[in-house]
Structures are given as C-alpha cells and as structure tokens.
Amino acid sequence: MSKVIITGASGMVGKAVLLECFDNKDITHILSIVRSESGLKHSKLKEVVHQDFSEFASISAELTGFDACFFCMGVSAAGISKAKYENITYNYTIELATELYNLNPEITFNYVSGKGTDSSEKGRVHWARIKGKTENAILNMGFKQAYMFRPGAIIPLKGIKSKTRFYQFMYDYFTWMIKITKILSPNSVINTTQMGISMIKSVSLGYDKKILNPPDIIKLSK
Fold first, then answer.
1. 67-80 as b/e: b if 16+ CB within 10 A
2. Residue 35 in contact with residue 51, Cβ under 8 Å?
3. Which of 101, 106, 197, 216 could form a disulfide with 221 if both were Cys (CB 3.0 to 4.6 A apart)?
4. pLDDT number for residue 170
C-alpha cells in the first residue's frame, strides 16, 4: 500500500495522476498540496492549502510518512520573465524535494519535465536548460528512487483539460493532428491515463532508466 503526495493536481498532468490514484487500489492516501481548495472530494484525498511554495518547512508535519511524491506542478515559459520561470520551475521544485529528502530519503520522487529538456544545462533554450538543471539537482540529491518524466504530445482523456488557454485551444481544435501523429508514430504520443499509470507503477516496480521519454512512459503503463 502506498501513500503519495501530488503537486499541480489542478493541471492536466496532475489531474491525470490524481484520477489514476483514485482508481488504484494500492494507493491508500493522497496528499495534494494546493494554493486554494479545489472542491474535490474523495475518501483517499486530503488537501493542504499552502500559499508559499518557496518553503515547505512550515508544513513538514503534513509531509511525513509518504512513499512517493508526484511533482506535476509547472508553468509555461511563454509570457513570463526568465527569472520568474526559473523561480517557479527550479526553486519551488527543489525546495519541496529537499524537504522530503530530509524527512525520508527512501521516498520516490517523480518530476514531470518535458520533451526537449537540456540535461547539459548549456543549450540556447532557456526553459530547456532550467528543466535540465532541475532534473539534475533531483537526481543528484540521493533519493532511493527518482524519475524524470518527459512527455511530448499528450492526448487528454476522462474529460481532463489544460489550464493554459492556448494549450486547451490547441486540444479543442487540433487533437486530430495529435491522433494522426499517434497513428504514424505510436511511441511518440502518450495519453493522460498512460502518464498517470506509469508514474504510479514506477513507485512499486521501478524502471531501468532515470529519464523516461514517451516510449518509456507507454511501456511502463502497460
């Protein structure tokens, strides 16, 4: 039986993971860290309202006794400064990862990154460098298990929608293009259910790679 922490449960990927956790009999407790109450109700779910993601020491008592953290919170680099993007993407993630590692280094830490992430941290694309920096920091922290999930195109299922207006517009009008891509290249596109299941399975089954691209996510979800 597993107890898990989720961030970003109001977003597309986070919601996908949350729904699969609801349905998975081996997940017994879910702690969702949110800035405001979502209104969701489930026997497994507890929400902790926390406004300041630059620190988690103030809620450390709530974070004890868990087996995994699914860090799904993220922000688009479009329309915000490089400094703000790095603060949200890197600092917020590492603050929680550090707090959880100090509480329990045996916890599995899964981070939702993105296809095209720059592990060298030296490329020209800012968001890719920051994602790579974040991945590297987590992988070097010392967790017993840590996996970096790099989905590319995602087909939303179960009524899931993106919070980003532009992305949802693309899903509303151009999902047919993603589905065609899926037919032509089956291992290049995943769906939200596969994303959720693969993250859950990584906790109990592990995986032979630390960085999971779409083919790995599909494989692990089966």
1. bbbbbbbbbebeee
2. yes
3. 197
4. 54
Q: Which residues pair with 102 in a beta bridge?
A: none
- Tens digit of pLDDT for each residue in 1-11? 799 999 999 99
Q: Which two tokens stand for residue 119?
A: 């592990």
Q: In the chain, how many H helices and how many E strands?
A: 7, 9
CA Rg value for the chain: 16
The residues near 90 (Cβ < 8 Å, ≥ 6 apart) are 130, 133, 134, 137
Residues 83 and 20 sit within 8 Å (Cβ to Cβ)? no
The 10s digit of each residue's pLDDT in 69-109 is 999 999 989 889 999 999 999 999 999 999 999 999 999 99
Among candidate residues 145, 149, 158, 162, the one with its CA nearest the CA of residue 193: 158
The structure tokens listed for 2 are 């597993």
In the chain, what are the domains?
2-221 (3.40.50.720)
